[in-house]
């Protein structure tokens, strides 16, 4: 079972990525390091609703 989530940059709060996750593997909010084109660097991206 996979759930659709949105990843937002923690620095500029832009929502940069739509992805899916496995809720059994990641029951809590996901955080991943991804490239933010608004910050023009890699930043932490957090799951939002
Ligand atoms: Zn950013």
Quick structural summary:
With 49 residues, the chain is mainly beta. It contains no helices and four strands. The protein is elongated, with a radius of gyration of 11 Å.
Question: In words, what does this structure look like?
Answer:
- With 49 residues, this protein is an all-beta fold.
- The protein contains no helices and 4 strands.
- The protein has strands at 2-9, 15-22, 31-36, 41-48.
- Strands 2-1-4-3 form a 4-stranded antiparallel sheet, with no helix packed on it.
- The model has no long low-confidence stretch (mean pLDDT 95).
- Zinc ion (ZN) is lined by residues 9, 11-12, 14, 36, 38-39, 43.
Task: List key phrases describing it.
4 strands; 4-stranded antiparallel beta sheet; single chain; mainly beta; elongated
